[in-house]
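Allow me, if you will, to draw on your knowledge of protein folds for a short while. I have a record of one protein: its chain in single-letter code and its fold written as discrete structure tokens. Kindly check, if you would, that the fold set down in the tokens agrees with what the sequence suggests. Thank you for your consideration; the sequence and its tokens are set out here:
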Amino acid sequence: MRIDVLLKNLCLTKTRGMARKGCDTGNVKLNGAVVKASKEVRESDLIEIRYPDRVLVLRITEIPSRPVPKKSRSDYFETVRETPLHRDSGGWNV
């Protein structure tokens, strides 16, 4: 599944366009590399998302076939690391 679609389906971004923007600006990484929104994600891949207030690193455990409710999204990934950021660190708005 494309990374922009996955981020939207797991409620990690509000829209697919926001996920695309995060990829375009380098605020989304896949296995440590900046990627295009069309990059395919597989199980066990690491996704790093730089939000305005934190950096979130996730390991994908399962690829959802469709959008999942926010309360169920943790069934599809495990949080590897979550690091708070200072307000002026230049994160990306979701």
About this structure: The longest helix spans residues 16-24.
